[in-house]
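#structure-requests
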Amino acid sequence: MNLEWIWFLESQALKFENMGCLASTQNKSGGRWPRNVGEVAVFVPGMRIPKPIDFTQPFGDGLSRDLVERLCALRTRIVVMAGQEAPRATKPRRTATQHGGSTMADLQQALEDYLPVLLGLVENGNQLKHDLQFSWLNQEDTAEETTMSNSWYEVLSVLHLMAMLSLSQANLLLLPMASNDGHLSKLSEERRRACIDMLLKAAGYLHFSIQHVLPQFPPELRKNLPLDLEEGVLQALCLQALGQGVDVQLGMAIDSVKATLAVKRRLACEMVKYWHQAQENIVGLPLMSGWGKKHEHFIEWKYAEAKRHVKKLL
């Protein structure tokens, strides 16, 4: 099942590409970034941070000692790294830093190492599914801590964190780098392509969460999920990632001397579609002040901005 899960995420990325998101990108770019396009920024909601748990107590002889030790080591590494990186990841930075990018990449790798082991246990009906208390808290609200004894909650929380890290890395890639003389250099096509890859990864993690993890929750347990893990919020984030990927591609097309007006119009219309769908998913949710309202306002702004792009290209 682990190989199938990896294949699924890769197939989602290919699916999004085949929808027209990447096919129109030109290999060469030229000209200056037009002033009316505006700055592309990736909104990252508050990250959810895992709290330590003791894997050795609930099981007895249910799992091998080696597997229990591996689970402990993998999750402890994530707890430590997330506690260090998450507070920095969503702080605004004027320039991208190698330290920040590499730290997030290391945490992402730790999560990728942990998730297949966790999935292997829960998908085989292991007692891990109900014996442990998994606790996660929202970075932006330390009072908002949610604990559940179902390991699908752990899977969902891990995937959510992986998606948020991908969005954060996309954000870093879009921030201009400072040159030796103190001026901000223009974003290279390589960085923009890398950003699109990160946005597609985030969309893949979120899509998998919605289609294959949320259905594993009993209805009564699903009602107790924190708001940032509800289906509408996850859908909005997934569509946001796709919309911002097209946003970056539109900027590349505008810069390209080879991109036709028809290509630019199609990308602009596609961007409007994603932001409209994102807004439909998040509107009406009981979002309180803080990250939820910021997220809602960000989607409203990007939707309005996308519609302006279409009007300019008509």
